[in-house]
Write a structure and sequence with these properties.
N-terminal domain of MutM-like DNA repair proteins; Helicase, Ruva Protein, domain 3; 2 domains; four-stranded antiparallel β-sheet; DNA-binding
Length: about 270
Amino acid sequence: MPELPEVETVLQGLKPHIEGKTISKVTIRRYDLRWPIFKNISQKLMGQKLHKITRRAKYLILHFDQGAALLHLGMSGQVRIVNKTQPINKHDHFDLEFDANKILRFTDPRRFGAFLWAGIHYKDHPLLISLGPEPFDKKFSGEYLWHLAQSRSVSIKSFIMDNKIVVGIGNIYAAESLFLSKINPKLSVRKLTQDRFSSLVIAIRFILRKAIKRGGTTLKDFINSEGNPGYFSQHLNVYGRAGLSCYQCSHILQMIHIGQRSTVYCEKCQI
DNA sequence: CAGAATACCTGCGGGC
DNA sequence: TGCCCGCAGGTATTCT
């Protein structure tokens, strides 16, 4: 269930362990993830140095000598650095082994995750090419959102969860940022003023920054952690609180569905 | 083209 | 105890 803060946490956890190291072995146990893993990925990666790891949206980008590989955690994906003594569990789908006995192990029960070779021109990969700006990109502003909104008719919640508008905002942080900025998630984007969009942008950045900071506290345990970045333990105002009372006004929080996704909000605070 | 619905997959909790 | 059902979540793909 990773959203952007979780992916960022994973990135920061991986970096110190494997950046600058060379692949010595690749073991694929299941090729059928969201998309099939390239059949010759093992040969391809063998002996290549991993120069750095970066992130774009919720994709981790592994930069090798001959190009980049994309790693997406889907909804249940997890990566850890393990050593050879770690037993293989049911959903451990592949290992990237580096020298010094450091193994990147990918685990994903639902197999919505992906591991794709994207080559030198990875920036043109179809999965990346039409993504909107990062939430922390200066381009992402109230003005930017307002302009795009004028030709759309979706709800504000669907709008901010659309990757072409802005990346990295999933169901949880969409609900939370709308609560913080006091916007009703059902509201049509065309009814929002630029000022309200600006508040939303601030709320989104605030929430994400807070979550990333929180995730960072688990980094030191990265090697042996069970991969719980403290996601649900953080203070959520509305997500998962349907039927409970609003922390702001005590009104009972409502659960509705927007675009097939459960949405919790306060009908008193969010107008 | 925009928007809505569907599909992918597994584990878990609730109801019976 | 066991079974069936609904739900969760990211996002590409298919349908209207």
